[in-house]
Predict the structure of 2-C-methyl-D-erythritol 4-phosphate cytidylyltransferase.
Amino acid sequence: MSDEVRPRRTAVVIPAAGRGVRLGPGAPKALRALSGTPMLVHAVRAMAASRAVSLVVVVAPADGVAEVKHLLDDHALPERTDYLVVAGGDTRQESVHLGLKALPDGITTVLVHDAARPLVPVDTVDSVIEAVRDGAVAVVPALPVADTVKEVEPAGTPGDPEQVVATPVRARLRAVQTPQGFDHDTLVNAHATIALAGEGATDDAGMVERLGAPVVVVPGHEEAFKVTRPLDLVLAEAVLARRRANDGF
Ligand SMILES: Nc1ccn([C@@H]2O[C@H](COP(=O)(O)OP(=O)(O)OP(=O)(O)O)[C@@H](O)[C@H]2O)c(=O)n1
Ligand SMILES: C[C@](O)(CO)[C@H](O)COP(=O)(O)O
């Protein structure tokens, strides 16, 4: 079937099965509240805000699938958006793979979005989708980095200092966010290839790069930051407070 007549269905896989160790003790990170609403619900709403998204697959902690289903049943989403909840794995990569396996036939564009990036604006989501629909097989939203970044040699003996081995040219570096967008078949192929090779990757575009396929960059957004450490919760609450103030609540 040619691209002209192939229906363009866009789905999002949201890996949400992490524990959130760096955030400190408590519930799994995706279930912790931001302004009274679980982080995962913010993330699902951020994806459903795009009119192009017809399906959201949430990859939940293996022992939390029923809880996450109830949570999403209890929080309104636009009628045009369906959702599924599946159990995740031991790593982010494995969780995304399990989410991809749950996609129905007919999906042509897939976004992968961290539950831990609950505040990404819809314009960023739409620009990723648009770039895929315009023909890119892989798209990442990204921002320039503010710090100088050093490459280090890990310490040989615990307690020894790390040694700096290189300083990459900062102007060429980008901090990559999610949602990352993909042609469906390209992403599925990348996950299968990397898993077969027994390799790991910290993001999905990195797997597509290893296939030799081009990855395109679109502008990211400061509010798409990843909630990783306790201070990020403070920032997320501040962003939500500013949005409420701007909306006149
Ligand atoms: N086994 C895993 C590990 C991570 N994730 C998801 O991948 C996203 C990005 O991961 P990260 O921010 O590192 O979350 P955690 O792994 O939960 O954090 P930490 O490393 O601090 O435990 C999160 O939405 C997280 O839920 C997942 O679905 N399955
Ligand atoms: C996918 C990602 O958010 C891109 O910046 C990031 O690599 C996830 O990393 P983590 O190790 O799961 O925090």
User: Anything to note?
Assistant: The longest strand covers residues 53-60. Residues 9-142+174-246 form a domain with the Spore Coat Polysaccharide Biosynthesis Protein SpsA; Chain A fold (CATH 3.90.550.10). Residues 73 and 83 are 10 Å apart (CA to CA). The first helix runs from residue 39 to 48.
